[in-house]
Amino acid sequence: MPPLATPRQGAGQWIAATEYPAGAMPAEGLARLAEAALPLPITPRFDAPDGVRSAQMPRAVAEGRFAIGDAFAGALGEAAPVFLLSSLPFLATSAAEARKLLAAARPAYAAALETLGVALLHCTPWPPTGLWSRNPVTSPEDLRGLRVRTYDSTGTETLKALGAAAERMSFQAVAAGLANGSLDAVLSSGDGGAGRRLWEHLPHFCEIGYAMPVSLAFADPARLAALDEAQRAALEAAVVRTEAGLWTLLETRNAANQARMRQNGVTIEAPSPALLSALKAAGATAVAAWEAKAGTAGGEILAAYRAA
User: Fold this and answer.
1) Is residue 15 helix, strand or coil?
2) Nearest-CA neighbor of 126 among 147, 99, 148?
3) What pTM does this model have?
4) 303: burial class by Cβ within 10 Å (0-12, 13-18, 19+)?
């Protein structure tokens, strides 16, 4: 595969990039990291600078286009099964469960990122995933034929099993699909939806509590190796402070998102028992398929999570 076109950053440039808009949790993480790491000069950039989305971000950082990158973990699922872990349906559906799952998976995330040529910094939690839609989705029948964006292969498989026309796509691509009418729904949190003003096309949000996934922030190892002792200490402290702050922010984030959604005319609905039951049954099949693909390593992570 040929190298990316943009050359490696100069030594004095520390650009931290994400495909998500300012205010979304990953962007908030990069902004907080930049502030906490001073005097190390980190400049956050949002909305997929140079067109780089989550799936391409590790390569862009490894090749020096950015010093730091953020990627939605599920978008990296083709590189290693562990990246799909946090978005497995109904595995971790509360902040406490999401933290336990992250603790069990963090070494595997770091190792998988290392094989991609980057070094893990911090992990960013997302609020619960729901379903944004043009029309109410209240029953399993409402999913049939629904043209819905998903964020990873597991979500695509889960919704297709219920008859939806599900397609995985980056968050950057969602706006075009909504504008041209090729999408009826988007699998996303209230956080991501608010950042992209999904209510302009999708005035309904069903709180299915599908997952609480994570994004991963990572750095160019060459840039890390070039830091002096004081800079390295500042960055390491900033990483710890940033992640702790993001989990604290998560405690109030969902309520704040929902208030903003309602202010913009979004109807927030609870799923019917039949819809939730159908989603969980399809999700269990997807989780079993993931376990088979992830093998012993995946099984050990799940065992550690369930025993915690």
Assistant:
1) strand
2) 99
3) 0.93
4) exposed
Residue 35 CA to residue 127 CA, distance in Å, equals 23
Q: How far apart are CA 136 and CA 274, in angstroms?
A: 15
Task: Report the alpha-carbon distance of residue 82 to residue 61 in Å, rounded.
Answer: 20
Is there a contact between 235 and 173 (Cβ–Cβ < 8 Å)? no
Radius of gyration in angstroms for the set of CA atoms belonging to the chain, rounded to a whole number: 19
pLDDT (tens digit, 9 = 90+) per residue, 70-115? 999 999 999 999 999 999 999 999 999 999 999 999 999 999 999 9
Residue 5 has pLDDT above 60, yes or no: no
> Is residue 154 within 8 Å of 88, Cβ to Cβ?
yes
Give me the DSSP letters along 120-181: EEEEEE-PPEEEEESS---SGGGGTT-EEEESSHHHHHHHHTTT-EEEE--GGGHHHHHHTT
Tokens matching residue 156: 């695509």
Q: Is residue 4 predicted with pLDDT exceeding 80? A: no
For residue 300, give every residue at least 6 positions away whose Cβ sits within 8 Å of its Cβ, in sequence order, or none: none
Please count the other Cβ atoms lying within 10 Å of the Cβ belonging to residue 231.
Answer: 16
- State how far the Cα of 76 lies from the Cα of 113, in Å rounded to an integer: 10
Q: Reduced to 3 states, what is the DSSP secondary structure of residue 273? A: helix
Question: Residues 6 or more apart from 255 whose CB is under 8 A from it?
Answer: none
Amino acid identity, position 304: A
Distances (CA, A) of 238 to 46, 74, 79: 19, 25, 28
CA–CA gap between residue 291 and residue 102 (Å, rounded): 17
pLDDT greater than 60 at residue 1 = no
235 sits in the region (left: phi over 0; alpha: psi -120 to 50; else beta) called alpha
Q: How far apart are CA 104 and CA 93, in angstroms?
A: 16
Rounded distance, CA 144 to CA 65, Å?
42
Q: Tell me the C-alpha distance between 236 and 198, whole Å.
A: 36
